[in-house]
Design a protein that fits this description.
Blueprint: H1 10-15, E1 23-26, E2 30-34, E3 44-48, H2 60-81, E4 85-89, E5 105-110, H3 130-144
Antiparallel strand pairs: 1-2, 2-3, 3-5, 4-5
The structure holds guanosine-5'-monophosphate and zinc ion.
Zinc ion is lined by residues 3, 9, 11-12, 51, 102.
């Protein structure tokens, strides 16, 4: 299915057979293939056949299916690559580093000393006190219980 917008989508091309790809899993809903520029060899992308841009756009049952596929593939990727660990990563939205706006889950096999890092806690961040943490949690709880149509799609919770 083509993207919702008129923007060209590399992953839709791949799914429609218009681009070279190394597929390692497929079913009627999802495809998994090798990342063209892997962090480490064995880096896999799990992708829905239907075009959805980001996490917030996904129907929940599709999100669950993609994670089920990721869970099935993870032991195989780990075994094949002899990885010591695995980053299961979703970059959702430009601000979060998403480059390809067709939702995907990264399976990134890791070895000690491979040089890749998702540094958490972020070195530039500060510890928050309990009042700040509780206040943020309370705002999220309130928001979660609001009707879906009243919930803003981006940014609201982070605004202090
Ligand atoms: P993002 O930053 O959107 O989470 O990650 C996009 C990923 O897609 C990157 O790791 C990048 O290497 C990979 N990628 C981009 N274009 C292609 C492509 O044409 N084929 C494949 N297999 N992977 C791609
Ligand atoms: Zn697409």
């Amino acid at each position: 299915m083509p993207p919702a917008t008129n923007h060209h989508c590399t992953f839709c091309d791949i799914i429609n057979g218009a681009g070279e790809v190394s597929v390692c899993y497929e079913d009627s809903i999802a495809l998994a293939f090798m990342d063209i520029q892997p962090v480490n060899s064995g880096h896999v992308l799990v992708v829905p056949r239907r075009h959805f841009e980001s996490f917030e756009d996904l129907p929940p049952e599709l999100a669950l299916h993609l994670f089920e596929v990721a869970m099935r593939l993870e032991p195989a990727v780990r075994a094949v690559t002899r990885a010591q660990g695995m980053n299961i990563v979703v970059n959702s939205g430009r601000a979060a580093g998403q480059d390809v706006f067709h939702y995907h889950v990264h399976l990134i096999p890791r070895k000690v000393g491979d040089g890749f890092d998702i540094p958490l806690p972020f070195p530039g961040s500060e510890m928050q006190n309990r009042m700040q943490l509780d206040a943020c949690a309370a705002r999220i709880i309130t928001r979660v219980h609001q009707p879906a149509r009243a919930t803003a799609r981006t940014g609201d919770v982070a605004a202090d």
